[in-house]
Amino acid sequence: MTQREEKPVKVSIFVTCLADTLFPDVGRATVTVLERLGCEVDFPVAQTCCGQMHMNTGYARPAGEMVRSFADTFADADAVVVPSGSCTGMLRHHGRSVAPGVHLPPVYELSEFLVDVLGVTDVGATFNGTVTYHPTCHSLRLLGVGDRPYRLLQAVNGLELRELPEAEQCCGFGGTFAVKNAEVSSAMGEDKIDNALSTGAEVICTSDSSCMMHLGGLLSRRKSPVRSMHLAEILAGRE
User: Fold this and answer.
1) Do 124 and 155 contact (CB within 8 A), yes or no?
2) Domains of the chain
3) What strand order describes the sheet that includes 126-134?
4) Any bridge partners for residue 131, and if so which?
5) Which residue spans within 83-125 are E strands per DSSP?
6) Cβ distance 131 to 161 under 8 Å?
7) DSSP H helical segments within 85-137, as ranges?
8) Average pLDDT over the chain, rounded to an integer
9) CA torsion 201→205→210→213, rounded to 10°?
10) What pTM does this model have?
11) How confident is the model at residue 6 (pLDDT cuts 50, 70, 90)?
């Protein structure tokens, strides 16, 4: 019996607004992966939003209230795992600026937690298909997750990972940027889709539901058979 089986790692899930309202399978997949690795997973039902959208549009006070609500909701958490680089970045890097004096528990983006805390890259997943990975802006630039998602994907049984040209370029979503600058957002997204399709991959994988939604919408408009999937969904796969 491993040490993790003797004493489960206790984690709390912050599922994010998009996963809660549009992509519940992302939340379920995150729980599946963590429980498979022996974690004891808790989902505080009082959780709401991280406040990022409000902060980005200049509403610092409501954003601070949401950060304080997060801190209260997860006050007893040993660690909080988030299937989103943008929400993790908001809480970890901007939370105290909009909510001075607030005490936040340790907050980890999913790939950070798996690789750095649990110390694993092979999560026991199987996915038969070709995949290209789009690194999201916040995970890449704000959190610096580096090659962690790639290492996790490379260890998935049956998965062929194909390099995405100009991978570090933004997909164009950017939260409220896509609303304020729709034409620019769409053009950036089309460039990303062109690069993804050039790989011949069957799936565009990313680690934020927002990017997944944006890319999935553009693929749908092209009537492309290529799917957009969240990293957690691929890591949860089994034969």
Assistant:
1) no
2) 3-116 (3.40.50.1860), 121-235 (3.40.50.11810)
3) 157-162, 126-134, 203-206, 227-230
4) 161, 203
5) 107-109
6) yes
7) 85-89, 95-98, 110-112, 137
8) 94
9) 40
10) 0.92
11) low
